[in-house]
Amino acid sequence: MVEKAVAFAIKSHEGTFRKGTKIPYIVHPLETAVIVALMVTDEEMICAALLHDVVEDTGVTEAELKEEFGSRVAELVMEETEDKTKCWKERKSATLEHLEQASRESKILVLADKLSNLRATARDYYLMGDDLWQRFNEKNKSEHAWYYKGVAKRLTGLEEFPAYQEYVKLCEKVFE
After folding, report:
1. pLDDT number for residue 70
2. Where do the domains of the chain lie?
3. What is the rounded CA–CA span in Å between residue 44 and residue 41?
């Protein structure tokens, strides 16, 4: 099932790149899946990590995911999917609110996704400095700090994972 999810994600994200870079977008879902695989052995969780952005960023529907990968994978992906009709602040506030009562599985997916994003942000921040924030829809560094630190506070129960510890350290380095 994981190989099928890899192929599905590659096809879905074909021709897209990470914001402001020439890095193929698929690198992010693959890294997210590796981070999840270091925390759990659950294949459906790993598949959800691989597919976490397909509904949000491509033409794939929840129904297609359910048909291809089953209800649980589709539900996990949908928990992680932002409503792109809303502005940045509304989307991020909704994620933080969701994390208040999210399942451990959902928190693991969020941690992996946000750690992958924060690794890329930290790397580029060291190279570009504050010019980095211009590539994002939200250009205010303090808003990104609010969001990433808010995620860290809400990932209760995951503190024992090295991924969580790395996430917190990167937050400190990038935002303080």
Report:
1. 98
2. 1-175
3. 9
Q: Considering the candidates 43, 53, 56, 100, report the single residue annotated as catalytic.
A: 56
Active site residue 124: no
As a whole number of angstroms, the distance between CA 114 and CA 93 comes to 15
pTM of the model: 0.95
The values of phi and psi at residue 17, to 5°, are: -135, 160
Hunting for tokens 């981070």 — which residue is that? Answer: 35
Sign of CA dihedral 85, 141, 24, 104: negative
The proportion of the chain whose per-residue pLDDT surpasses 70, expressed as a percent, equals 100
- How far is the C-alpha of 45 from the C-alpha of 2, rounded, in Å? 10
CATH topology of domain 1-175: Hypothetical protein af1432 (1.10.3210)
- The residue annotated as part of the active site, out of 31, 42, 44, 57, is 57
Here the tokens at position 102 are 């999210």
